[in-house]
Amino acid sequence: MILDKKRRTPKKDTKKLSKKVADGAHCRIVTELLDPDSTQGDAVQSWRVFRIMSEFVQGFELLRSHGLAATFWGSARTEPSNHYYKEAEELAARLAKKNFSIISGGGPGIMEASNVGAFKVGGRSVGLNIQLPFEQKLNPYTNESLNFDFFFSRKVMLTFASEVYVYFPGGFGTLDELFEIITLIQTKKIEAIPVVLYGKGYWEPLLEFFRTTLLDKYQTISPEDLELMHLVDNVDDAMKYIEKEVKKIKNVQQI
User: pLDDT tier at 149 (50, 70, 90 boundaries)?
Assistant: First the structure.
């Protein structure tokens, strides 16, 4: 510590402070959240926060214009020839005819299939897209869309977008969104809403892991937590479950 001779109080060590600022330029808050290419200092870099805020504002303004809605999740790699693609399209079309807005991540695969289904029957088809270096580009079957730069702001929009969440087979992104929703329901941060797992062949091994490992072996979840998700294997069963469960949700337009 350096003392100011006149005041006998600690004096800032400018060398250490400069080093601290320089080191801070390499921390993740700067390199990933702020703007690492800014040459005008932290004050200017921090304006990137307003870009994040604008994504929240635009997202909420878009979603508040939609009433009853269903969000579809699933792999971006699912081809139109795949039976899951066709079934996602059919389910979305039937829900759109019941006055559901169909919301997806806006990309290809299952997301595209759900938007196609709504689009073909004249329904409301929404895409909340994310800019990625591979796989993801906005599909042409949306009549409303937003492009996001930040995963977390897009995730908040998708979390609060709908009264129904339908999960087709997918990768890490699909699983991430599934765990997000069931955690929010489990912890009562959001109202219990229908969570549909579509495709027994894909989801049953995961549900078995929940039962045998999380519940029976380690007791890290409760028996009722397994009831937060409903497994179906065809469009008819999915429709019956959704129509029945949506009527139980408070403050929602009835179908």
Answer: confident
